[in-house]
């Protein structure tokens, strides 16, 4: 019944469910069970077709990149090409089929190793997707009927995707294990040459499964877009590795000849349940990577021990030695992955400890008694940054934790490690299942997350956005650090002052799908037209919130636009990256300004590379978000209020459904040493 020791994974799944039922809120509920299956669909489709490929001794690293290409093809055909959604979906599936056929042709006709071929198309497909969209185009605004495929529920309970995923599992299982065609893949995995002598048409079968893999990737992309509500070239990033991990975890041999569909599904759910359970337990998401590595190593070792006797009796000495060496290599590789995960987790732990030590050194904050609303119930406030590793949001977290401690509220801080709208949706879904009191999100993509925020509101959860807004009907209040107009005009005025009112400049933003930064850019352009006709904005480039990417983009700007006299960064990590590029170029005629943190930019400001930066007190932004969330949960703050009492910040203005922190502040060489954040 369990030819590849799948019973090990069954025990793992039972153990996970027992642990998370005790530690996670609302884990053992039907709603969470269906949500787990929803989260498994896209990667599950990839893993299903990865199973026969790995059984034949091959691999397909291109499926995640094919998802990105398929997503932008569908979005472009529908929005820019004016085609109906049915036509766009049909063409998208054909693109996936052709991509798989390209892999198959190079593997079977050119006899190239699958690893090398699909590593090449991994870069090719993603590169084409980024080329079609310049890496910044974001397709959204899809019809409700299409979004129902990824966001809807049949009978109000069953996710729509399951009506695709469950039949796919059944069909692939029957095909792989109950037909001669499917069973021939095992023979190919043991020996391609022997299979040819046995009359198996090896080339035809390999062509078939690689084409199906491309088709499955394009289908996964369609569901991904419907689930998230946006199509972008980064769709499916990293999905290929998770799919391979699920197949290998399920007992398939990476060297071919062994594997089952049942094992793949069990491996898939072992990973997805682990991720879901950790979120419901309020644990750091980094633990998922660590524990997945531990799970992979443990199952390999247990499987190796249980098969030790078989290996001794059925293999000769030379083949046994080869097998042992390969398992040793797998163990070393898994150990390296685990060590890397531990380093990442350790660095995050040290960061949190340093924040706590810093607060302890400063001492407790004296709170005005009148500022804390009477709230006998301990509020659970779930707060999400755009990217947990961004120094801007790390500084926001300090203020958020101060407020939570003062109010006696429970603060859950989680989110993606980089700019990933799909991960934001997954975290919000977990918080809905957990039943938190308030969800506060710094939104990366307003169209992508608004649907799930509306779902939270429908469940009675208060929803707040901060730093960057969602659709207005998807939240109760927006905690605004400053008005977009105020930020845009302040940045433009600073640029004009530095440049003497004339010349060319460029902007390096975080992501061109980021709602708040797009608003700032809109008001920058408006200010230029109204007040500074001699200033010319020549380029807007994304940095994806990464300092190194900002460095590279600035180098390109200086080469392509040699007359640029100023580069403006409107993402915290981007500004020091820009400054380093300008410094290394020795272009003393080029200055830098933008939105960033004083501590990140201090050396460059003192060196004169950065003239000034514009920002607000980020700690106060996090503090205000938690205070407003707690007041909203307790009923002390509601629609129509004109003021909000916010502890050490005193009373703040409420304009409509926006709570405003205040005007932006300009940091320069004269005052930079007065601030430490």
Report on the architecture of this protein.
With 677 residues, the chain is α/β, with parallel strands linked by helices. The protein has four domains: 16-283, Orthogonal Bundle (ABC transporter involved in vitamin B12 uptake, BtuC); 284-358; 372-481 and 619-648, Rossmann fold; 484-615, Rossmann fold, CATH 3.40.50. The protein is 60% helix and 11% strand. The protein is built from 24 helices and 18 strands. The strands form four sheets. Strands 6-5-7-8-9-17-16-15 form an eight-stranded mixed beta sheet, with helices on both faces. The chain has a six-stranded mixed beta sheet with strand order 11-10-12-13-14-18, with helices on both faces. Helix 6 packs across helix 10, helix 16 packs across helix 24 (618-634) and helix 19 (484-499) packs across helix 20 (515-531).
CATH hierarchy, class of the largest domain: Mainly Alpha
Overall SS class: alpha/beta
* CATH third-tier fold name of the largest domain: ABC transporter involved in vitamin B12 uptake, BtuC
> What is the tally of beta strands?
18
**Low-pLDDT windows of residues:** 309-338, 340-345, 358-375
Beta-strand content bin:
5-15%
Number of H/I helices: 24
C-alpha termini separation: 60 Å
What is the averaged pLDDT score? 85
């Amino acid at each position: 019944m369990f030819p590849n020791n799948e019973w090990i994974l069954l025990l793992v799944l039972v153990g996970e469910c027992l642990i998370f039922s005790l530690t996670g809120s609302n884990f053992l509920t039907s709603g969470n069970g269906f949500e787990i299956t929803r989260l498994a669909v896209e990667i599950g489709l990839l893993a299903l077709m990865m199973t026969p490929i790995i059984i034949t001794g091959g691999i397909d690293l291109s499926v995640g990149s094919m998802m990105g290409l398929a997503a932008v093809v569908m979005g472009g055909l529908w929005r820019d090409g004016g085609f109906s959604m049915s036509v766009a979906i049909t063409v998208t599936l054909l693109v996936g089929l052709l991509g798989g056929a390209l892999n198959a042709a190079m593997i079977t006709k050119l006899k190239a190793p699958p690893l090398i071929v699909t590593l090449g198309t991994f870069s090719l497909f993603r590169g084409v997707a980024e080329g079609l969209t310049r890496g910044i185009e974001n397709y959204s605004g899809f019809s409700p009927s299409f979004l129902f495929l990824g966001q809807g529920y049949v009978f109000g309970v069953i996710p729509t995707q399951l009506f695709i995923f469950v039949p796919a599992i059944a069909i692939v299982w029957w095909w792989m294990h109950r037909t001669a065609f499917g069973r021939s893949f095992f023979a190919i995995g043991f020996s391609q040459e022997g299979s040819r002598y046995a009359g198996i048409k090896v080339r035809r079968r390999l062509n078939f499964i690689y084409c199906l893999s491309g088709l499955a990737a394009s289908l996964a992309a369609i569901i991904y877009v419907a689930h998230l509500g946006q199509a972008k070239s980064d769709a499916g990033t990293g999905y290929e590795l998770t799919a391979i991990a699920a197949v290998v975890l399920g007992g398939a041999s990476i060297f071919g000849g062994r594997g089952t569909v049942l094992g793949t599904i069990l491996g898939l759910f072992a990973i997805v349940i682990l991720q879901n359970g950790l979120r419901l337990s309020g644990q750091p998401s980094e633990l998922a990577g660590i524990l997945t590595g531990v799970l992979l190593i443990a199952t390999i070792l247990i499987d190796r021990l249980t098969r030790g006797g078989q290996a001794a009796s059925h293999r000769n000495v030379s083949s046994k030695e080869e097998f042992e060496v390969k398992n040793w290599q797998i163990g070393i590789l898994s150990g390296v992955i685990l060590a890397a995960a531990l380093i990442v987790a350790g660095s995050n732990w040290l960061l949190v400890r340093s924040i706590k030590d810093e607060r302890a050194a400063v001492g407790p904050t004296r709170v005005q008694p009148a500022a804390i609303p009477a709230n006998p119930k301990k509020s659970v406030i779930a707060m999400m940054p755009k990217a947990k590793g961004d120094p801007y949001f790390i500084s926001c977290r300090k203020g958020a934790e101060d407020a939570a401690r003062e109010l006696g509220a429970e603060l859950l801080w989680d989110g993606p490690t980089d700019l990933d709208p799909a991960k934001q949706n997954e975290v919000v879904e977990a918080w809905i299942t957990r039943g938190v009191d308030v969800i506060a999100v710094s939104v990366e993509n307003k169209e992508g997350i608004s649907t799930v925020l509306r779902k939270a509101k429908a469940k009675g959860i208060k929803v707040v956005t901060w730093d960057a807004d969602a659709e207005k009907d998807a939240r109760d209040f927006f905690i605004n650090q400053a008005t977009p107009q105020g930020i845009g005009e302040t940045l433009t005025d600073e640029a004009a002052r530095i440049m003497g009112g004339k010349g060319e400049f460029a902007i390096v933003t975080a992501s061109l799908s980021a709602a708040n930064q797009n608003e700032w850019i809109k008001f920058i352009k408006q200010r230029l037209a109204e007040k500074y006709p001699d200033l010319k904005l020549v380029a807007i480039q994304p940095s994806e919130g990464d300092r190194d990417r900002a460095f590279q983009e600035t180098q390109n700007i200086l080469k392509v636009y040699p007359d640029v006299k100023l580069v403006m960064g409107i993402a915290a990590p981007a500004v020091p990256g820009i400054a380093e590029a300008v410094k290394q170029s020795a272009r003393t005629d080029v200055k830098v300004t933008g939105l960033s943190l004083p501590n990140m930019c201090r050396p460059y400001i003192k060196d004169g590379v950065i003239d000034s930066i514009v920002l607000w007190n980020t700690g106060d932004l996090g503090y205000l978000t938690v205070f407003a969330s707690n007041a909203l949960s307790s009923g002390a703050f509601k629609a129509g209020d004109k003021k909000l009492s916010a502890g050490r910040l005193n009373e703040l203005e409420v304009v409509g459904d926006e709570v405003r922190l205040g005007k932006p502040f300009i940091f320069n060489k004269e005052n930079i040493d007065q601030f430490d954040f």
